[in-house]
Amino acid sequence: MTKSSVTSTDVAKLANVSQSAVSRTFTPGASVSGKTRERVLAAAKELGYRPNVLARSLISGRSRIIGLVIAYLENHFYPIVIEKLSRSLQARGYHVLLFMTEPGQQDEVIQEILQYQVDGVVLASVTLSSHIAQECAGLGVPVVLFNRYVPDTQASSVVSDNVSGGRMLAELLIKEGHNNIAFIAGQENSSTNVEREQGFNEALAAAGLQVSQRAVGYYTFEGATIAAREILDQAVPDAIFVANDHMAFAVMDVIRGEYGLRIPEDISVVGYDDVPEAGWPSYNLTTVEQPVEKMIADTVEILLEQMEHKQVSPTRRVTEAGLMLRGSTKSSLA
C-alpha cells in the first residue's frame, strides 16, 4: 500500500476505532477523547496518512477558508489585525486566504474570492458595493467589514467608537489650553475619517472652537508629509490631530526634522490606533487605542454564527476605544 492510497478506513482499522472517530480527530474543535486521538494519530503516522482537506470540503460543502481583503499594509495596524485574525480563526479550524486590492477594485477581488468557495469574507481598510454584498448574502457567505462601516448594506461591521475617540482627543487638547488646532484627515469618505472628525469637531464646537487649518493625508505616509508642510507653511498651530498613527509619525518627522520645532513644547500631536511604534521613545505618541483583541473576537463571532446557521444578517458591533497619554502632548510636561 502506497502512502498516497491510504484512506481513513485504513487508519480506523489499524487504530481499532470507527471511521467517524478518525474524521473527528482531524477536525479542529470536534469532540474526541484523548485516548482515541492518540491511537488515531499513531495509526496515521504509521501508515503515512494525511487527510484530504479538499475532498472533505466537497463532501461537507464547507471549505473552512475565510477570504481576507486588504488594500495596504503600510499602516502597521493592519499587519497586527492579519496576524491576530489568522490565529483566532486557525484555532477554530479555519484558514485565511489573503487578497490584496487597489482602492476601487475590491468588488472584482471579491468576485475572484468567491471562486474559491470561501465560507466567509473579511474586508479590512476597504468597503464593498451594496450589490456585491447582496450577492454574497444570496450565496450564504457572510461579509464583515473590519474597521469600516457602510450603512444600508448586507455586510456586517466591526469598529471602535470613532466618534467617541475623536471627542476624547479634542477634549484633551482643550483641557491642555490649546485653541489653535489643526486636523489632518485620512481618506475623505472613509467611515473612520468621517466619524473621528465628527467627534473631534463636536467637542471643539462645544467649547466654542473650530479647526483652524485642515489638510488631507489620504492615510499615507507621503500624503501626511505633504499635508504637514501645507499646514506649517501657512501658520504654525499649537496642536494637530492626525487621523491615524501612521500619518502622525510622518507629521512628527516633518515638525522636528524640517521645521526645527519641538513636540510638545511648540506643537502637540495626537493620533489614532495605538500601533506599537506609537510607544517607541522616538515618537511617544498620545493616541486613541483601538481595542484590536475585542474587534477580532467580534469579527470571528459574527462569522462563526452566520456560517453555522447559513444565514446572513447584517450586524454592527461598536467597541469602546481608550485614550493613551504619552509624551507628544503637554500633559506630559506637567
TrEMBL record:
Entries under Gene3D superfamilies matching the protein: 3.40.50.2300, lambda repressor-like DNA-binding domains
MF terms (GO), sorted A to Z: DNA-binding transcription factor activity; transcription cis-regulatory region binding
Domain called HTH lacI-type: residue spans: 6-60
Pfam families, per database record: LacI, Peripla_BP_3
InterPro entries (alphabetical): HTH_LacI (IPR000843), LacI/GalR-like_sensor (IPR046335), Lambda_DNA-bd_dom_sf (IPR010982), Peripla_BP_I (IPR028082)
SMART domains: HTH_LACI (SM00354)
Domain of life: Bacteria
Key words of the record: DNA-binding, Repressor, Transcription, Transcription regulation
PROSITE patterns: HTH_LACI_2 (PS50932)
Protein name: LacI family transcriptional regulator
